[in-house]
User: Fold these one by one.
Assistant:
Number 1:
Amino acid sequence: MIRPALPSDSKKVAKLIVQAMGDLAMKFCNSDRPEIAISLFEHFFYLTDNQYSFKNTLVYENAEGVVGTIGAYDGAKLEIYRKPFFDYLAEHFGLVNFNPESETGPGEFYLDTISVDPSAQGKGIGKLLIVAGIDWAGKLRHKKVGLLVDVNNDRALKLYQNMGFEIVEEKPFMGSLYYHMVHKII
């Protein structure tokens, strides 16, 4: 079942966020230790008004608990959501003047992180979460849903294309190259 996330989901969702981000999560915490990145995202998951907040997250829960997550928000709020996160990174991880490229912007509902626990992959949960993200965007009256996918992630690229997302541009982000993909809501 897909439901809005609760603060009590923090431990599982933080692990799933780090799984989805991979090396990007390590760059945020200026470390190569996943447990530090997990702790960082747990902290921000509890808070409101940031892109990793429970308020911007849906989870997929089954008998084993939370096994999937999608974080999404209005792209127009990216800079507002980034500020407390980047301020924290500067104070706690020494990332002063850290200002990566914008991954989204106004006019787009942005699917930031989509992740399914390895034990639950291959069962259609990712697709259900993406559909829920598109539905969420529609309820908020957005006309476009966007996301980034690594240009080398053929499996995810095919999934998104099969779900109606189209590549609109190649976009550099934090030292890697991504496809910026958009799904138009009719």
Number 2:
Amino acid sequence: MNTTVIGIVAGICTSVSLLPQLIKIIKEKKAQDISWGMLLTLISGLILWVIYGFLKKEYPVLFTNLFAVLINTLIIIFTFRYKRS
């Protein structure tokens, strides 16, 4: 198996790993048990991976982590939205 394919599959798996959490937050309109420490650490690491992928022109790294940043940003937005209600 090609190393690029392995990298893409790994990136997709890690990128969508919090998608079930996002769907649960949106579906239940509750986000009381979200760990801010974990979320902020994760999004910081993902942003650094995006920068790394951009600088090294490693597009699988760049795009899969950019997608993961999007998912985590949506989790933060919906957490704020549903913690207030």
Number 3:
Amino acid sequence: MRKPSASLESVPELIGRWMGHLGMRVETRFQPSGDEEAFPNRLVVSGPDADWLAANRGQALDALQFLLHEAQGERDDHKLVYLDVKGARLFRMQEVMAMGRLAAERARELGSHTLGALSARERRWVHLVVSREEGLGTESEGTGTFKPVKVFRK
């Protein structure tokens, strides 16, 4: 494990400094997601230039989050900060978890149900929501960055 250099508490100031160097004005604040196991340490980015980070399906936000994780030096999900602009990621988490619950219902009826290709974080949400259900299991299928998730009866 890498030596952590940026604590969770220092991340909002770090973002402000980095964005300031780019000439961007943003504010940050920690705000609970409602499911800290699935979406811990949610840091909401707002302000006049926050929309720029959310453009192009959040690619700049993903890049900033990657840099923050590198600065934090952690690999434990519960110690890393996760960025959100205008609640888009919170909404996506809720949407994917609802898909996972629906897949669980379908798997109970049919024996199994496969969801389409999802990112690693989205697959984690599905695995998490299904793990909360009795008698069901999940597995990611295939290779690559985006993979389908199969939900099945045990």
